[in-house]
């Protein structure tokens, strides 16, 4: 009998549409791979969620949620309580990766290279403390580059905006010139690299999800020493947070002063996009893994912390 899998998707975060796309693609691939697949669009109705789990009786949950409550340890904690194995990282690693300042502290302790960064509190922000431009403005706990902006000389300061909208604290990082390099990590190894090319200022939400806004080069055509180094750094970042399963690790690669250049770790995405045209499946395909094989591996290696 085929293993029963429930794909969790949707939710109510700012990344709902991305999650629905990921979830639908994964559900179709898992069905094609021979699993008995059900789907569930998560809402805030906890009794309905528990009733669905009882009715569908999944042996494994494929977590295709993105953003708050789906990749920050919340749904992982519920699944741990229910003793249902699930894909991607556990509740602690998920929470750490989603909290950018906390993740940065762990990366610093592991001696991983990063851009200089600061956390500002809105109620205590003094314009005199604003960092030298250009810098990157990032909400503390959002994914898919939601709310991220690059601030140049002459721009209005988002730190002073009346429509702040990002909670009490925000992360600001020194802008690193160069190239967007991302690495897929699968299990106990880095799987491969990809370079993102875009005509936009950086790889923002529009560049990620609007057709024609970015181009992908697999593997990333960077200096061999830099390629070896970024593969090592990606695994170390994934491991020091305690991640498991599949993740995607994002870097800036500054080769503007010559090769082999310098790498700066940006973040670890514990719930990367999982449509057939997303970055991790594209890297997996270059490594010889079909989309069906990738999602099946994720199911067969699912765990929980019960």
Short description:
By secondary structure, the chain is an alpha+beta fold.
3D architecture notes:
By secondary structure, the chain is α+β, with helices and mostly antiparallel strands. It folds into three domains: 4-88, Rossmann fold (3-Layer(aba) Sandwich); 97-113 and 177-270, D-amino Acid Aminotransferase, Chain A, domain 1 (2-Layer Sandwich); 117-174, Dna Ligase, domain 1 (2-Layer Sandwich), CATH 3.30.1490. Helices cover 31% and strands 24% of the residues. The chain contains nine helices and twelve strands. The chain has helices spanning 16-32, 46-56, 74-82, 91-98, 100-109, 205-209, 224-240, 279-286, 291-300; strands at residues 4-10, 36-42, 60-63, 117-121, 135-139, 149-151, 169-174, 179-186, 189-197, 215-217, 246-254, 262-269. Strands 10-9-8-11-12 form a five-stranded antiparallel sheet. The protein has a four-stranded antiparallel sheet with strand order 4-7-5-6, with no helix packed on it. The protein has a three-stranded parallel sheet with strand order 2-1-3, sandwiched between helices. Strand 11 and strand 12 form a beta hairpin. The chain is globular, with a radius of gyration of 19 Å. The relative contact order is 0.16.
Features:
single chain, 306 residues, alpha+beta, Rossmann fold, D-amino Acid Aminotransferase, Chain A, domain 1, Dna Ligase, domain 1, 3 domains, five-stranded antiparallel beta sheet, four-stranded antiparallel beta sheet, 12 strands, globular
